[in-house]
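BUG: 3D viewer hangs when loading the predicted structure for this chain

Environment: internal workstation, default settings.
Expected: structure renders.
Actual: progress bar stalls at 90%.

Input used:
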Amino acid sequence: MTRYHFPRQQVGDFTVMAISDGYLTASLDLLSNIEAAEAADIQRKAGEPTPAAIHINCYVVQGGGRTILVDSGAGGIRQWGGQLSANLARAGIAPEAIDTVLLTHAHPDHVGGMMTPEGGTAFPNAELVVDSREVKFWRDDANLARASERTRGNFLMARRVFEGYRDRLRTVGPAMVGAAAEVLPGIRAVSLPGHTEGHTGYLVESRDTGLLVWGDIVHFPHIQIHRPDVSIAFDQDSSVAADTRSRLLDQVCADRLLIAGMHLGEPGFARIRRTKGRYGIEYENCGDNDVPLTPNRQTP
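Structure tokens produced before the viewer hung:
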């Protein structure tokens, strides 16, 4: 009998589970403000391959009678990811059971799983929650006109998603960088700009415990946590992204806050430590959620 492992954490009354969508590949040449040799050395010492395979995480948050998905992975576009649907089924979670999708931002590896190959909505009962600035950016025709041929597809994909969920789309927008606004009971949206204009984290809090899903604060965690000044070509504003990353690393390190991130790697959950003036990542021991596949479990 095949078993699948889904890392999970208990945050008070919430259970948070990491669900893999698979991988995308990206070159270290996409990084800025670091020599290629240093980046490759950090990867090698961390046991990471080069060229890099970047893991894509999504997260399911359950509690208070709700089943919430944070991001939807790449959906197989550009041969990236595409494993979310199968892994949700393996975890026993039907698409119809998801009542809310919290979107960190609208890049393809985060919204690709929102629509079916036939053009329908993948989560037919879900409200889609996204920062208002994110929606405004991707819907702006002037931004589309300035986009390169490659990134033009990103705009078209984001627009398809927003249109597909138009009757179930709720926008939120913290007034200040770093401010937090409750989007659901026990879950607050945190503005984390730079990677995109409306890039958002989600802070899950219950019974004096907390976990921050920080989206795309890092793509190469060992490199960018060790060197928070290092940005990636996917960042809309690399300077703002680096400032946000440095500020956030200070905060989560000081608070010993549990973090989750879409590109943290398969363990899914971690804490940030500081040693001799440098940050590092400590992956968290996760509760086992090994799911046996039985004949009556729906599995693609």
